[in-house]
Structures are given as C-alpha cells and as structure tokens.
Structures
1.
Amino acid sequence: GVHLGAAPLTPTERRVLNLLLTANSEAEIAKLLSQSRHTTHQHITRIFRKFNVSSRAALTALWLGSF
C-alpha cells in the first residue's frame, strides 16, 4: 500500500490517507484532523499525485490491489 507511492508520504498525509480510504468526506476528514477543508484538500491532491491517480476510487483500487 503505502510503498506504492512515487514519493514517501508525510505523517499527516498518512493520517489523511487512512481516513480517505474510508467513507469520510473531505469535510469530515478536515474536522477529524482539526484542519481547514482547504488544507485537507491540498493533502489529498498531493496524495493523488504521489500515487499517480486522479480520484478516490482509483486510489482505493490501487490500495486494494496491492494486497
């Protein structure tokens, strides 16, 4: 999973990723991590880039396919 990315994830990106792979919305993730929605969106964008995907569905498929 986490080793599939093009670059290592930061600790915050790992927390966002764990929540992103659940049913939580971006707004819920932001609230859970005490971040603004904008900051959370930036983290998600970086995660997508690092895994070379453009959607949560593609990220989930990639993550599930790595097991």
2.
Amino acid sequence: MLLKDRVLLITHVRRFAGHGVSRLALAEGAKVVAHDESFGSPARRKAYETEFPGARAIAAQEPGKIVEGALKLASRIDALVSNDAYPALRAPLSEARVEDFRAALETMVVKPFELAQKVVPVMRRQKAGRVVFVSSAAPLRGIANYSMYVSARAGTLGLVQSLAKELGRDNITVNAVGSNYVENPDYFPPSLLANAEAMKKMTAQIPMGRLGKPEELAAAICFLCSDGAGFVTGHTLAHAGGWA
C-alpha cells in the first residue's frame, strides 16, 4: 500500500482537498490525524470520524497545539498536508482592499509557515518527513484582477523552494500541488457545477476539456507523501489539466 502505516496530518480537512486526501490516504494504509476550524465542536469531530473510519480529529487550532495534538494521538508525523483555502477575490488593483490582501497572506502564507515551523523539528528527530502545501496553479501564469489571491499563493510556492533547500539534508521533502479547475467545495461548489453556461465557458480554457476530480487531486498529494517521491523536493506539481 502506498502509505502503509504513515501518519498524515491534514489541516482544514473539511475544505478544498481535505476529504479526498482523507479517503485515499486511509485506503492506502495511512493513519490520518485531521484538523479543521470546525472541530472545536465535539459533534463535528465525531461526524468526521464517522464518515472516515480510522481517522482521528483534533480540536486544536493554533499551529503548535495542532502538532502537539497529532503527536498525542499518533506519536509521530510522517507527512504534513497543509490544505489551505481562501476565497479568490476578484479585485482590480484600483478596487482591491489592503486588509483583504493581508488576510489572504495570513491564511495562505503565514499560517502554513507557522505550521511548518512546528512540525519540522518533529521530522528532524525522526530523520525523515514530507511537507506538502495544497496550493494553486494561479501563480504559474497569473490571472488578471486576482492579484491578491495569486500573490498570496505565490508566497507559498516560494516557501517550497527555500525550505526544500534548507531541509533536504534532513531527509525532509517540501513540495506543493498547484491546483486549478478541480471540483472542490471552496472554489467549485455544486451551485457552480450545475451552471451549464458557466461550465462550458470555463472548460473551454482547459486543454483537457473538463474539470479535475477530487480523487485525482488526492492522488497527486498522496504521491508526494509516499516513498515514491523520496527524491522529489522543491517542486510545484501543476494539477490543472494543462491550463498551467
């Protein structure tokens, strides 16, 4: 099995790629520890664990507490899947609000950086680890009127480049999956998928002529957490049907 006995810590698990990664990682033999902003509620934690038998949900929200909680449940962390989502706000430069840009940077760059700071010492002690940032393909080609979102995502991709060089000798790989045009609850909700006119216009921009499936995105992420990706680091894997 691809991830047999590996411990994956997945953040914001009820968003973006979280469900797909949970399902595939468990099927591939991993032990899954999950964080979500909704898990302060015992009922929400129980609902997740019921939907994904074998996964464990933690209530912690701050990066250090998240890592502590994962270690209490699993004793080790073999892979961090930093699954970060934030609205892609359409805002031409003349209309963009600096406070929205700061919020995007906080969610998609600062918090993932903090989490990496807390998890890397654990991986160093283990002499191995995988860090995967679930990001966007948008910085690979840019999108007019979305400079705040694209710039924040680009910050994460820069983090990948630098941390890969810093941590390579510790046998810790650092990569990102640059997703776009993949079905998920944050960027392609059911209401959008049901809009035939919007979907026709959208898929016309994708060389493969369709949206990606959640299980395809999950497979790319799980590969980067596996032994097979042991010599892959500092890489952003574009997962966008040829758009990027």
3.
Amino acid sequence: MRLCLAVAVVVTQAACAPGGTSATRFNGTWTRDGGELKVWALDERRLRVEFRGEYEYESSQGPMVNVGTGAGEAAVEDVAATFRPVDADDDCRITLRPAGERLEVSETGECGFGLNVTAAGTYQRVNAAEPQFESP
C-alpha cells in the first residue's frame, strides 16, 4: 500500500518580511549622526513617522546648530514607505527602506528642515519598542 501526501504552502510577502508584517518591520527608534526617526505601524499599510535632525557647524560666534523636525503618516508599498511631513512643500518626499537593523532614507524636494538639515542617510535601529512621539 502506497500513501501519498500533498502539502500546499501559501506565503504572502508581508508574512515573510523581517519583523512581521510589511509595516511592522519599520517599527522602532532609528538614529544616525545628526538625525533620529521614530516610526510605528498604524496598520498594515500606514506608519506614524517623526523626524528630528541637526546640522552642527562653526561660526565666528562659536559652535552653532540648525535643527529641523517633521512628522506625518507614511504609506507602505512593497519594500519601502514614503511620506511627506505635514508642513513640508508638496514636492517633499522621504522614502524609508529597511535593511535588517538599518534603515536607508532618501529625501527629494523641499522639506523645510532648515539649512543643511536632512532626513537622508543610513540609520541604525536603537530600540524596537513603540517610541514616545513628541507631536500629538
């Protein structure tokens, strides 16, 4: 007597994403020199995002720093999430691409963070817990 067993496996992209669903893989607090991003999944396709950046420089009066902030909701699509901070120009786009414990961030358009302040760069996850957001 021969017994045959057939097994079907269905896998979705979201289930295979590192850290869980497509949105939750972005969760946590991410930092780089001169920048911090706080990110938390609102649902499978939306993130709450808050950015704070600094640009330090020397002036004739001594050390100075430009500071910029931005917050908003990001739309998650495939392997990236994109958002425009609430008070930024219409052409501002910030794209987040997770890569394990790193987050690659690019910025296009005028985001209004201040002279030489940018969200762009490579961030490291420093905490995977839900961040304490500054904005309501």
4.
Amino acid sequence: ALLRRGQARGEFRADLDVESTAEVLRAMQVGMMQHLLSDDPALDVSGERHLAAASQLLVAGLRRAP
C-alpha cells in the first residue's frame, strides 16, 4: 500500500513494479536481520552507517526522476 500511495502521489516512479519491489524489500529486510543475528563479524550491518546506506539505496531506486 505504501508503494502504491507513493506512486499515486508522484513520489515514486510510475514504472515501478509494486509487487516485485515489495518482495525484494522484504527479502532485503530478512537478509539484514539474518546478518544482524549472525556471529560472523564480517557480516556486521548493525551500525547507523549501514542503515543510512540501505535507506539511501532504497530511496534512490524508488524515487521518480526530477
């Protein structure tokens, strides 16, 4: 619903495949959670910079071009 509202408001790309994007976002969330729960220090994504990087990446992919 959030993705569809963003499209309707012109905030997100009109060509966004909402269903596939929602599935990918869920998969990314699960992956991040798995890394957070891992004991492997090479998989540490718990820092603020990781959240910021993920957020910037997501927004850049969703936002419509100016």
